Fold this protein.
Amino acid sequence: MAKFSLVFCFLFLSSLFIDFSVATTKTVGYYEIKKGDISVTVTNYGATILSVKVPDNKGNIADIALGFRSIGQYTNDTTYFGALVGRVANRISGARFHINGKTYKVFPNEGNNTLHGGHRGFGDVFWTVKSHQKDGHKPHITLTYDSFDGEQGFPGDVSVSVTYKLLQHNQLAVIMKARPLNKATPVNLAQHTYWNLGGHNSGNILQNKVQIFGSQITPVDDKLLPTGETAFVKNTPYDFLEPRVIGSRIDQLSAGYDINYVLSLPFTSIIRKAAKVHDPKSGRVLELWTNKPGLQFYTGNMLKDVKGKDGAVYKAHAGLCLETQGFPDSVNHPNFPSQIVKPGETYKHIMLYKFSTE
């Protein structure tokens, strides 16, 4: 009888694709939202987007978000496929910063620096599902996470939430909020989905045409840390002010694109267009709107024979990331827009994806 129980448990967990080390403490859930021709699947592990399915210009549905076959792969990877990253997305130089004269040391997980919140950031924790409506008038899912004082070295308790919501006309809204409860702390959340509009297993994105509504970038050193300066993109390989094929000048860079754009319009609480991507083969179009001042454009340079879902093997440039954000390492550059949020204040980050065809 005991042997039968063990076998049953093994089959049950395997059917859910749950990693045993994860399953011992928390339960992995999968949640779908659907409206019209679009469907999105999310898990409470890392508030991660697992799939986004939309039609091409012939009505064929494909999953355009890169991802893994099992949750176990998500717990052991460094790609951040689909994750909600924080408490501070992107890099913090020296894994330290100062607030009100006090130095805070955070967990270094990229050499001496911190990337996407440390070795166990928000993309590597279990979130709580507060509400979920699969379809109907308001398909959505809202997940919350309570970040504790000292987590990965960050100060103060912070209440965090993210809502994924489907709107009319194949639009996906992502609404991220954070409220510090007792200490001032940096907050910079980002949604880290890798997109391939041809389908997640359709090859590379080098023939996609991209437009980025940012006339400047924040240059980086050889560790991808901002120098604290800004530079105009005009007449450089970073110039996407007009629609341009990604691969047209990528060979002028050492590996590919991985840079923060300063969005052109003044930073306000009102959302504005940040980027547009067009895949010529499928005709699919993605427009991204946001209320944040920066956009990290990343072309999957570090992907190397990554085994993904549906038997896909992701190589370099298999997908692109468009991560709206505060500027990287803002905590160490007073000239950058501040990411410090105080008790009584609410951080709010909006992303609106508009999917269509041409």
Notes: Residues 1-24 have pLDDT under 50 and may be disordered. The radius of gyration is 20 Å. The chain has three helices and 29 strands. The longest strand covers residues 347-357.
